[in-house]
Amino acid sequence: MDLTRRTALAAGAALTISAALPAAARAQVPASATRRIPSSGEAVPAVGLGTWITFNVGSDPVLQQECTDVMAAFFAAGGRAIDSSPMYGSAQAVIGRGLGRLGAPAGLFAADKVWTSSDGPQQIEESRNLWGVQRFDLLQVHNLLAWEEHLPTLLEMKAAGRLRYVGITTSEGRRHDLFEEVMRAQPLDFIQVTYNIVDREVEERILPLARDRGIAVMINRPFQQGELTRRLAREKLPDWAAEIGATSWAQIVLKFILSHPDVTVVIPATSRVDHAQENVAAASGSLPDQAMRRRMADDVQAL
Fold it and tell me: How confident is residue 236, by pLDDT bands cut at 50, 70 and 90?
């Protein structure tokens, strides 16, 4: 397909999706598809939108428009939480471009990170300008980089009303011992960790500690950057998928994550409109009970 035709098709898709956005923004997200943030009691839709890799598209207008289409579909389906980081290349600017074109929906939950060994406040302000928002809802210290310096800054911002929630992140099981120490010692609202149907280390200590400390949990890498879902796609969808209302392997993985009582939000990344819609839909309807969770994990492990 030539560039002109791709651009025209992308623009047409954006207009179609965006036309439905105002009504969707006014719609109520089903209670079954939300979770409560322990420190405030605020309800937030349980499936968010990650932007690692998928939104790092530089200045390519076609790829930028595809990301805007994904955001429009995500909002129209009831999604509200978007997560990014200065580490994610052009992702923050791409989010800002999308919000500029679509408008921010009611209840947008803007989550970003501080990721620098130097001037945290300067980086945060640069990130805010790229998004084009008045303030972030959540800022987290990315992978604990210079956390001793940045956490006091974030807590001061929260106390001054310039930030709503404070947290820390890690991924792929890194530095969990230090992560637990910070969780125990600091007044965190959120943590972000890796968790899915095969990467389950955080079930042992991190998730129980979050529950005990009243900390919300955001889940990254639910699909192992697509590796997990690509592997599972080669397998037939199991018969029990219908019992939990899952129509794809991606929904099976997300429903497993969301069925853990200590999980607040999961942030799958995608560059496809249909996947954004499918991901948000995973939070609605049935979720597996403990017996089904064991069966799911055992069956996936055996594949």
Answer: very high
105 CB-contact burial (10 Å; exposed 0-12 / middle 13-18 / buried 19+): buried
pLDDT tens-digit map of 185-197: 999 999 999 999 9
For residue 83, list its beta bridge partners. 50, 111
SS (H, E, C) the chain: CCHHHHHHHHHHHHHHHHHCHHHHHHCCCCHHHEEECCCCCCEEECECEECCCCCCCCCCHHHHHHHHHHHHHHHHCCCCEEECCHHHCCHHHHHHHHHHHHCCCCCCEEEEEECCCCCHHHHHHHHHHHHCCCCEEEEEEHHHCCHHHHHHHHHHHHHCCCEEEEEEECCCCCCHHHHHHHHHHCCCCEEEEECCCCCCHHHCCHHHHHHHHCCEEEEECCCCCCHHHHHHCCCCCCHHHHHHCCCCHHHHHHHHHHCCCCCCEECCECCCHHHHHHHHHCCCCCCCCHHHHHHHHHHHHHC
> What domains are there in the chain, each with its CATH number?
44-302 (3.20.20.100)
Tokens representing 104? 């921010």
- Cα 297 to chain centroid, rounded: 22
- Cβ–Cβ < 8 Å for 183, 177: no
Q: How many other CB atoms are there within 10 angstroms of residue 217's CB atom?
A: 24
Is residue 87 within 8 Å of residue 58, measured between CB atoms?
no
101 Cβ contact list (under 8 Å, min separation 6):
14, 18, 68
- Residues 102-153 pLDDT 10s: 999 999 999 999 999 999 999 999 999 999 999 999 999 999 999 999 999 9
